[in-house]
Write a structure and sequence with these properties.
The chain is an alpha/beta fold and 248 residues long. The chain is built from eight helices and six strands; from the N terminus they run H-E-H-E-H-E-E-H-E-H-E-H-H-H. The N and C termini lie far apart (44 Å).
Length: 248
């Protein structure tokens, strides 16, 4: 009886957590940007030839699909050459949404813009360094960046913190935004996991397993963690909080 009661309690807790996560993004207008559009490669893994721009795009597509199943309205910026152009495209996409289905654009403002990236160290030949960081520009961006950082850090186990710099998206349209650097694509194990996620390989090397990397669909897992971070951000804002996770 005690085991049954405990199981019921655990299931109830799980249901509440799932409901809260879905509630966090349901009804929100979320713009996604795949970093390094317009023919840019971004970082390149020198061992496997994996290009960051491709990784960014695959994660954005997975994230778009998952967000929509949880009731979010999602706009994906076209892969244009400049960040300004991609922001303008996202803003126009948010404004053109017909959410109430009356045949007229609702002129909605994007609630947030998330630009998806995957990092490279100063020395691109370093194939072992890994870590997670997020970037924000304005004070209003910081809670989103913190919530995403807290959610994404389990991918690498190495929290490299928040970076405040002129890389954000909000400088153009005064919108809440963050750039995510979920992991270093120059890391060979991350490249192997990406290739496994794409079905190009059937396993990862023993050295990567020995280093603690688990065989998984890395694209899907990152998308799930991105949603967790977004949900935590929206939930904290609706409750008067300042963002998910612990300050850095």
């Amino acid at each position: 009886m005690k085991k049954l009661l405990l199981s019921s309690v655990l299931l109830s807790v799980l249901f509440v957590l799932q409901a809260n996560a879905a509630g966090g993004v349901a009804g929100k207008v979320i713009a996604l940007d795949a970093g390094h559009g317009g023919g840019e490669t971004g970082a390149v893994n020198l061992t496997y030839g994996v290009v960051e721009a491709d990784v960014n795009w695959d994660v954005v597509l997975a994230l778009e699909a998952k967000l929509k199943t949880q009731g979010a309205y999602v706009v994906v910026a076209d892969r244009l050459s400049t960040r300004r152009d991609r922001v303008n495209d996202a803003v126009a996409g948010c404004a053109s949404l017909d959410i109430d289905k009356d045949g007229v654009s609702d002129n909605r403002k994007c609630d947030v813009i998330v630009s998806v990236h995957h990092n490279s160290p100063a020395d691109a030949t370093n194939t072992t360094h890994d870590g997670t960081l997020t970037i924000y520009t304005q004070r209003s961006d910081k809670p989103l960046a913190q919530a995403l950082l807290s959610a994404l850090t389990p991918l690498t186990g190495n929290n490299e913190g928040l970076l405040n710099g002129g890389y954000g998206m909000t400088v153009y349209k005064n919108l809440v935004s963050s750039i995510t650097e979920a992991y270093y694509i120059t890391n060979d194990c991350e490249a192997e996991l990406y290739l496994y996620s794409k079905g190009t390989t059937t396993d990862i090397s023993e050295s990567c397993k020995d280093a603690g990397y688990q065989l998984e669909n890395r694209i899907d897992r990152e998308a799930d963690l991105q949603i967790e971070g977004l949900a935590n951000y929206f939930n904290s804002q609706s409750s008067g909080g300042k963002g998910g996770g612990q300050p850095n």
